[in-house]
Amino acid sequence: MYLTPEEEKIYDGELGWAYQVSMRILVKLGDLFGASRLIPINSAHISGVSYKTIGDAPIDFLKALVETGGRARVNSTVNPSGFDLQQIEKMAISQEIKKKQLEIIDLYEKMSVNPILTCTPYYLVRPKIDSHLAWAESSAVIYANSILGAWTNREGGPSALAATLIGKTPDYGMHRAEEREANLHVKVKCQPRNEMEFGALGVRIGKIVGNRVPILTRLSRCTRDSLKQLGAGLASSGMTSIFYCSEEYVGKSLETISVEDKDIKDAIEKLSTTSENPDLVFLGCPHCSISEIQQIAHLIKGRRVREDVRLWVCTSRYVKAKAKRYVDIIEATGSHVLCDTCAVVTWIKELGVNTMMTNSAKTAYYAPTLNRVETIMAPIDQCIETACGE
Amino acid sequence: MGIILNGRPIVSGIISSRALVSKKPLSFLGGIDPERGTIIEKDHDLRGRSIRGKVLCFPHGHGSTVGSYVLYSLAKKGVGPKAIINVTADPVVVVGAIIAEIPMVDQIDIEQIMTDDIVEVDGGKGTVKIIERRQLCT
Hints:
heterodimer; A: alpha/beta; Aconitase, domain 3; five-stranded parallel sheet; 40% helix; B: alpha/beta; Glucose Oxidase, domain 1; 8 strands; 17% helix
């Protein structure tokens, strides 16, 4: 890989250990994946924040970076943490865990990383079309590449952090036009009816595509919110970083597969592990957009959440503030609008939750192993009906 | 003795120690006890064995990218491996070895190495030398 004289100096340690180790990470990954140079990035998004997911492991490393002067060179955000910083009392958090989680967030802040704790950083600052990014969090990566037209690899926590400190990333994979070309044609011979079915379709297709680039044809009623669910599903069961949607496919001949109604039904059945009543109804994976908050408010207005169920709506602090009018309507029903976290990265079992209902295929995909709970998939209106019904 | 295996340099440094050879991939997050450095991954062929001070040989890593931080943490606590040999390096293990400064080589046929052989790893050259075969009958 070619390095500029300035990059060479960083590699040799002239700016200290934090920058040296970051440069080594980027250069080595670049060498392994055939990059020719480093390119500047507009922003970074770092995963590995919730103490529930990562435990103590990164604390020593983050401390060493802070102590040797590591500071972010580009706008950067971080993934959700283990609790809502302003509503800790609503969650099962011991003093010890609270201390550790705040320490992790504090270490990121000391590196000048923006401590907005969300998996949807694109609602806060929308990346420009054709801009290069270094984002971790698979659902945000696939949204940025496919829906916003930005260019980012699917980074891991440490490589996104290294890119944050250097302000650059190696130019392989999704940073190259030829690697972004579709190489699998998926004929969608069914029409998902709601956001839940879009997500389930994503999980189904993700299992087939692996790390190929699919183009989905004949899919209609695609809104940004439904495609967010589809992408999150695709990136959960597959290693895909980008997908396309188009009326028809015209181009060089590609391997073609088709998906039908039965595939969506199968996926939903597999993602639902029980039919029992839920203790928790969870909306907001990935974090809700303003339009999703508005939709929930519209459906729940004037109703009351049952005593034996919790209804959680998770979003970013930014969206919560922007959508305050709708948030007030939702909270008046006994629901909780939580920021900085979500049901998957906090301790729900410890709150007495054994069964969770969600409209998110990504959550249903991960919760049985990450949270040891049973899952039921249902679209947003049915989730609200279950939480508020007689 | 003195079989030399040629691979690809990943992280430089020369070290010799006893080998611990795993047939299965390893996940550092959830697969290794972060305090003791013992393998705790379910159904793993080396479950219960310690990686401390060993030349750890395994096909490749799998699982969460937090695994890189686990490797760093193990090394800081003095319970990490002395060197790593992979068949195919993946980003999680590579990044972990870089930040923990653990010599690493990949593209090595690890079937040539047996657990408890004494091997010398040269991470800068990408070579692995089998210095002494383990004693089969003692």
